[in-house]
Amino acid sequence: MARRSALAVVFLAASAAACGGEAPPRTLLVAMEQDVRTLDPHRHDDSVTHSVLANVFEPLVTFDPQMRVVPALAEGWSNPNDLTWRFRLRPRVRFHDGQPLTSRDAKFSLERARRLRAAPHLESLVRIDAVDDETLEVGTSVPEPVLLNKLAGVGIVPAGSPEELSVPVGTAAYSFVSWEPGKDLRLVANDRYWGGAPPLPEARFRVLPDAAGRAAALAKGELHLARELKRKDLEGAGKSVRFVSHPGLVVVLLGARFDLAGPLRSREVRQAIYFAIDPRELAEESGIEATPVDQVVPPSVFGYLPDGGEPRPDRERARELLRRAGLGDGFDVTLDMAEAFAPNVGRVLAEQLSRVGIRTTVVGLPWSVLSARLERGESPFFSIGWSCNGDASHLFDALLHTRQGRSWGVSNFGGYANPRLDEAIERAGAILSPARRLEALHEAMRIALDDLPLIPLFNRRRTYGVDARLRFEPRLNGQVILRELSWGGVPDATPASAGLGGF
Fold it and tell me: Is the pLDDT of residue 423 over 80?
């Protein structure tokens, strides 16, 4: 026994030496471009917050890295009829506080989410029943073809959780330790996780808004993973860091307030802005990893309209549209956008618009400030990014349907209202046949492209700087799921200067 133990020690020491002589870091250090908005999974619709909290809370169903719906807390489901969904929960799942998961927790969570920010995803729910401890049944007012996609965004919390949730307790692979707003959020591995103990013992999400700062910290070994970087900022990092560029779901859009007087209420003016923009030049000159797009969702989303959107730029057409709108001499406008993109995307965008006489002042704001302004309707002209849940109805329901209480149009920051578009959106949401649904979504897309309440700029690729020792495969939705990461590196890791992915 002693001899075998001694041999094991020698073998482990030799293995460590072969790998560079260093044990992997206990704590994974991840940099995000902005802070989480909240610790409550039902009080936001923010991509960074979704990415971080997805490590704490789990939904009934979720998406795999390619955005296919897969089981999560529900190990299976069925449809007894067109208006009923029955979910079978996993047995022996426990929350981080040790309490067992039951269908009562799922019922409570869906009912709670319906009152809060997740309301538009659950508009059609008319009945939520805990049949027994492991069976949840949901009834809908109309057939719900994408209910699973919508439920993937609703984390399950313990029944009886407070209305203001400040200490998150979920079932996922990591449990919450602490949060210092604007600086750092700490998670530790949940060793009792139903899917098995995760590989990494601990992780810290650090808030570093400056992309160059994130890149510099990676190069110095102060971080192990960072999102939203520029390829050029990692050129000096050598083989210790690799750059990853991966297709994403986010489309960056321009929007306007429709309840305020001004030129942006004119359809001709919005069309002029569309034709003044050169998305390819915008991406190249700003250094953003992005793909030109001519509509409000990327090609990977169900509902994308092939050959939708007219070719651009067409600056002569833009000038003619401005003349028809009585603005032949152009006009002045202020554009609010996230401070991380104002110096690059904002600068190039302002130059492009100026070529047709639209004199644009770009104001860069912290995301917390910009989002608050959008919620209060204080930005007459703004830029946002939107990531669909795999189906175009996600964007149509939230951003373009007329606001109706806490359900439709919950993120319709411009106050846009179009009965024709509302009808097309609602019809698409009640059709079970994929072929017929696609026709209805295409009709909605044509209306949106004709009126241009939102003007598409480009489809952003997700970019990352990754410690070469870290096994990391990006997801289409850009989320960083810690249990999918491990130390060990990748074979023949490509140095940052060469890049991975590309387009």
Answer: yes
